[in-house]
Amino acid sequence: DIQMTQSPSSMSASLGDRVTITCRASQDIGNYLSWFQQKPGKSPRRMIYGATNLAAGVPSRFSGSRSGSDYSLTISSLESEDMAIYYCLQSIQYPRTFGGGTKLELK
Amino acid sequence: EVQLVETGGGLVQPGRSLKLSCVASGFTFNNYWMSWTRQAPGKGLEWVASITNSGGSTYYPDSVKGRFTISRDNAQNTLYLQMNSLRSEDTATYYCTRDYYSYWGQGVMVTVSS
Predict the structure, then answer these.
(1) pLDDT at A76 over 90
(2) Do A47 and A61 contact (CB within 8 A), yes or no?
(3) A64 in Cβ contact with A51 (< 8 Å)
(4) In the predicted structure, residue A67 carries a pLDDT above the cut 90
(5) Fewer Cβ neighbours under 10 Å: the N or C end of chain A?
(6) Backbone φ and ψ of B29, nearest 5°
């Protein structure tokens, strides 16, 4: 199975900060990587697909990138509505595997 | 507007069965693969099952293989998850998702407890 190691598990940041969350894949997953945002009591929402593609309706301050087996989600200027838990997911092979999640809180 | 509405959750004893349903609307259901994903209370996300658009192929992780069965009725725009031999570790909110997790339902809670 492909392991997705997500870091950090939690972080706090200030409004306007640039924030980066990373997932490392244990095997080659190409660009089959998605990022999800989940707010308390809500269903997850897809933010990024194909490692770098912004999902419909997602603000442009969100972006995805890849460097080798490391995949990053970046928020260019943090807003209060971005406080949530973020998950990555590989979809190149079964079983699908999620990262452990990153809880983003306001400093 | 794409909508996925799950039903069928509840409290069930260990070893018993439960069947979840997900009614889809707002898109051509038989064009899309569908999946179930779950989330135990306070925990992360776990993929549970996927099915091709025709229903001809299904996929499961080892944690549910042989106990859970995903199926679909394309005429009724409905996705199912039959869960047998339930265990306490199956307690979770179960989400119905469309291909590549582009859309998620609101989730349905399943509690396995005596």
Answers:
(1) yes
(2) no
(3) yes
(4) yes
(5) C
(6) -55, -45
Q: Which amino acid is at B17?
A: S
- B90: pLDDT strictly greater than 90: yes
Which of A91, A97, A98 lies at the smallest CB-CB distance from B100? A91
Residue A6's CB is within 10 A of a number of other CB atoms, namely 20
Which one, of A84, A44, A96, A93, lies nearest residue B102 by Cα? A44
- Look up residue A6 and give its two tokens: 């997500």
> Searching chain B, which residue's CA lies closest to the CA of residue A32?
B100
On average, the pLDDT of chain A sits at 97
Interchain CB distance below 8 Å, B45 and A91: no
Q: Does the beta-carbon distance from A43 to B61 stay under 8 Å? A: no
A53-57 long-range Cβ contacts below 8 angstroms, 24+ apart:
A55/B102
Does residue B25 contact residue B13 with C-beta atoms inside 8 Å? no
Q: Which two tokens stand for residue A101?
A: 């999640």
Contact across the interface for A95 and B100, Cβ inside 8 Å: no
- Taking CA–CA distances from A56, the nearest residue in chain B reads B102
Question: Is it the case that residue B78 has pLDDT exceeding 90?
Answer: yes
pLDDT digit string, tens, across residues A41-59: 999 999 999 999 999 999 9
Provide DSSP, A39-64: -TTS--EEEEETTTEEPTT--TTEEE
* The residue to which tokens 């306007």 are assigned: A16
Contacts of B107 (CB under 8 A, 6+ apart): A43, B6, B39, B93, B94, B95
Shortest Cα–Cα distance, A72 to chain B (Å): 19
